């Protein structure tokens, strides 16, 4: 994604209207978020009380960072996001852990310049953020992530993906719309038709600058960036967790 496009994506998220309902909306659109954060923490092969250093790419409202510090209470985290208002929201969620977190406002393209002193990390993690990048931008980011990890350091990504088969993609989207309809009713007391939800999701994808690849393409990019033990650790329909070791 060209840098100006990612800035537009960051601007889309730098909205008080979006941030006010962001976590509830995420629970409606992505009901596996809690489970995915738990699995990401479980996959990281570190002793629970080790003092580890982690970078969170696209911290958002701090959901994944909060889960990581719950799992690894002595961890220190560098939390990156391009939207300053998201970081402000994350600081509210993480108010009890602020002494363990360094926040930085940066697009992914600016990351190498704004994090020059960050190296020797135990892990880099991300959740629902990297699907905004195009293939070449993602490969460049993966190579950078590989360069700042310690030997045996890990990269773990929780995100959305396209199916390789168009028929499967259509099936997964239908299931997403149906589940979203049910959750909108139960969690927000909103009654929406499937057609409305499909239109809403399509508009959201365009607004957010979504460019998801398939999980196969993602893992191949990790291998190309130099990672080993690359695997998909969990998958359900269009959501998955994958990663690898330096």
TrEMBL record:
Q: Where are the transmembrane segments?
A: none
Q: Does the keyword Amino-acid biosynthesis apply?
A: no
Keywords assigned: Methyltransferase, Transferase
Segments forming a coiled coil? none
Protein name, entry field: SAM-dependent methyltransferase
* Pfam families according to UniProt: Methyltransf_25
User: Native species of this protein?
Assistant: Candidatus Scalindua japonica
Write out the GO biological process terms: methylation
Name the InterPro entries on file: Methyltransf_25, SAM-dependent_MTases_sf
Give the Gene Ontology MF terms in alphabetical order: methyltransferase activity
Enumerate the spans annotated as Methyltransferase domain. 54-153
């Amino acid at each position: 994604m060209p840098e100006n496009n990612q800035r537009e994506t960051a601007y889309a998220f730098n909205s008080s209207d979006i941030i006010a309902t962001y976590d509830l909306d995420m629970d409606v659109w992505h009901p596996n978020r809690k489970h995915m954060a738990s699995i990401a923490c479980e996959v990281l092969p570190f002793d629970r009380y080790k003092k580890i250093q982690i970078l969170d790419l696209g911290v958002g409202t701090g959901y994944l960072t909060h889960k990581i510090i719950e799992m690894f209470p002595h961890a220190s985290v560098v939390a990156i996001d391009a939207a300053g208002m998201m970081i402000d929201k994350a600081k509210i969620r993480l108010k009890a852990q602020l002494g363990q977190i360094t926040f930085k406002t940066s697009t992914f393209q600016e990351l190498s310049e704004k994090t020059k002193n960050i190296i020797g990390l135990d892990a880099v993690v991300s959740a629902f953020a990297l699907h905004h990048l195009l293939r070449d931008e993602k490969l460049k980011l993966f190579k950078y992530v590989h360069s700042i990890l310690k030997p045996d350091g890990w990269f773990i990504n929780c995100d959305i993906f396209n199916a390789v088969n168009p028929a499967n993609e259509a099936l997964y989207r239908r299931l997403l719309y149906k589940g979203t309809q049910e959750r909108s009713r139960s969690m927000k007391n909103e009654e929406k038709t499937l057609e409305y939800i499909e239109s809403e999701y399509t508009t959201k994808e365009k607004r957010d600058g979504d460019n998801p690849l398939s999980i196969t393409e993602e893992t191949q990019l990790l291998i190309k960036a130099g990672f080993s033990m690359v695997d998909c650790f969990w998958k359900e329909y269009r959501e998955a967790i994958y990663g690898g070791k330096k």
